[in-house]
Amino acid sequence: MSDEDKKEQPAVYSLDKLIGEARRLAADYRRATGKPLPGVSIEIALHDAARLLDLDLTPGAGGYDAIGRGARDGKRIQIKGRVIFDEAKGGQRIGQLSSGEAWDCLVLVLMDDEYQPFEIYEAARDEIMAALAEQTSSARAKRGALSVAKFKMISRLVWDRDTGLDPQGWENRPADSDLRK
């Protein structure tokens, strides 16, 4: 079968079904080995962010993973995913940011140990760059590495498992008026 014939073949499974199987396999693999299955969480995070936040994925765009629609129309969005196996453990980091590339905001998809999303946070590029500049570890700042806790502090919760999409976003910091009191 030629490459051209392969491209024209209809998909046997829907993408949602394949992602569901990837979730199951990744969770089973971790239970069996004690280690995460490499590369799976980002693929699941990309799919979940696109599905839940109405984004168009843009593979190979350089610096960003999706373009927003609706409330995020035209925004170039970098997507990161993190599976939280033990919420009591601190020090979890989001992946390296493409700080030298063009993007407008970053979305962090947090998943439980079954690789199901439970929260999605969003922060603008300028907020992230300011947080990176404040870090005391210059090597960490150069790599564009932020902890999940720090990202949650500077971002807003835009989706959660219990309430769904929040068009206003929930700020995880006091309002300016609260600071003046």
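the 2nd protein, sequnce then structure:
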Amino acid sequence: MCQKMSNVLFIVLSLFLIINIVASVGDDAFTIYIDGGKELSNIRADLNKVIDTDNNLSTKLNEIESTLAKITALMEGLTNDMKAINDEQKAASNKCGVTVKSGSARKYKL
């Protein structure tokens, strides 16, 4: 019995010593809550809110990323279309030829 009492006394004194050291080092270093778990449930609720917010943020970022991918695809399509139009204009301008004839060979003279 004496050994058990000394162990309990040692644990109580150690806990008291730890609490006093923490209190003397800094008031805000550690907070020990003995309120039946209410504070822990509040902390858990806050953590759940943070997790939900993180999930919502991830969802929004994924939507933004997919929208940017769509915009990039549209811009690439627009670039390809502009190149095709430019190539068509170059091909059309190559078909238009200019010939120069001497003055005597002209059909109509000014």
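The two ends are 135 Å apart (CA to CA). The CA atoms of residues 92 and 98 lie 13 Å apart.
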